[in-house]
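User: I'm preparing a small set of examples for a lab meeting where we compare how different chains pack in three dimensions. I only have the primary sequence for this one, and I'd like the structure in token form so I can line it up with the others. Please keep the answer compact; I'll paste it straight into my notes.
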Amino acid sequence: MTWLDLLRAIGVLAVLFGAAAMMIWVERRLLALLQDRAGPNRRGPLGLLQPVADVVKLLFKEDWTPPFADRLLFVFAPNIVVITVLAAFATVPFAPGLAVAELDVGLLFVLGMLSLGIYSVTLGGWSSNNKYALVGSLRAAAQMISYELPLGLALVGVVLLTGSFKLSDIVLAQAGYRWFVFLQPVGFVLFLVAGLAEVRRVPFDLPEAESELVAGYHAEYSSMKFALFFLGEYLDVLLISSLVVILYLGGWEGPWLPPVLWFALKTGVLAAGFVVVRGSLPRFRFDQLMALGWKVLIPLSLLNLLVTAAVLLLIGAPAP
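Assistant: Understood. Below is the structure token output for the 320-residue chain.
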């Protein structure tokens, strides 16, 4: 690794942590707007320093580990989700040539990191030795296995159109505003819905379900270990939003502004959409959640894949 690669990695980390902190402020302000209330407005102008106050509060809260927990796994579990999502971001091209690592199988690598993130929630609930946390972690495992199938199948249509798993190649294939959202509208919707479930956001936040599971899988967590779970959640939201931009919305393409600003703008709008969904929709029951995944999303994703493959066979598939 050269010094330039190291500086690029440090810069990406700084931007991601800053963006995750900003997501906390955006979510609280946007939810307040949707619910006709003020939201955070005391810490700094427009409440912009509220994320800093939250971090300071969490740093000074008691870092307690239950005596009946598996201490090693209990401490390590919150770190898994942060490590995996940061590793996934290493392959994301924010602009031409602006990525920590350009992998030929970048899309597969990102999917692999998303799949590993489930170990954070599962081990966190199991190692707590708390029955409510365990039920929450088991829900998370069932949910993520169910929704990773339509998530992956929705991506295959894009791979068929481009003939590549390299994320920058997928962006370049959409040059000239030939964005795949117009060629794969069903895949776009399927990916968004499965992405919501993948990051365990409303209406798919059954692993947490605080009204019935006293906060679910992280019931026994406090202080910075608790904060790491939510840092991972916000980073996951940004990752899914970035993937939607790359796969369906032309990546960094746009007029006048620098490419990296177009990428950030598109990602920010999608991330704000996650917040609007949270403030608008109620939580599913667990049987509804599973039925939607297995009876609706998976058949639709298979049908979308078959139609895409049939059309490409008729008109000629792109060269890999």
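A couple of notes for your slides: The mean pLDDT is 88. The radius of gyration is 20 Å.

User: Perfect, thanks.
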